[in-house]
Amino acid sequence: MDQYSTRLLETSDQVVAKWVERLIRQHCDEKKISDPRVGDLCISVIAQVSTEVHDNLVELLSRDVFEQRTNPLAIFRQATRPITELLKNLGSPSVTRDEFDERSFPDDVYGLSPATWVDIDEAMVEPGIEWGAWKAATVMMRKRNQ
After folding, report:
1. 84, burial (CB in 10 Å: exposed 0-12, middle 13-18, buried 19+)
2. How many domains does the chain fold into?
3. What sign does the CA torsion over 81, 83, 85, 87 have?
4. Tens-digit pLDDT string for the chain (146 aa)
5. Enclosing domain of residue 13
6. Cα distances (Å, whole numbers) of residue 105 to 11, 12, 60, 97, 108
7. Measured between alpha carbons, how far is 20 from 33 in angstroms, rounded to an integer?
8. pTM of the entire structure?
């Protein structure tokens, strides 16, 4: 794995649990959900999402750039599914989303999908941008050399 992918993965590993907990707590606070199961369920979902994001990032970032069929931010978007299930199980009502979000993320009824790296954590911005720039430069160089 290249240095940019490694940095992105390491940073993700450092922030994903905080991100998941923040999404759950924030939503529960806004919707005034005070179910006593939230703490235990939160721990379980944090572990599930942390493992899922890590494993999916390792799989993606270990592939050659021409074999990558998704991107790291899409992995985080997919990882909101267990959080959505938790909130549904707690009886939380869905949120109002704009037409673009409804069309782009039809299953994201709670508006959890990150639009940018900063939606996950400020620490993800630089490694995310660097990785994207590295990938674009790598693809361009290889295409030029073919």
Report:
1. buried
2. 1
3. negative
4. 999 999 999 999 999 999 999 999 999 999 988 888 888 899 999 999 999 999 999 999 999 999 999 999 999 999 999 999 999 999 899 999 999 999 999 999 999 999 999 999 999 999 999 999 999 999 999 999 88
5. 3-144
6. 25, 22, 21, 10, 5
7. 16
8. 0.92
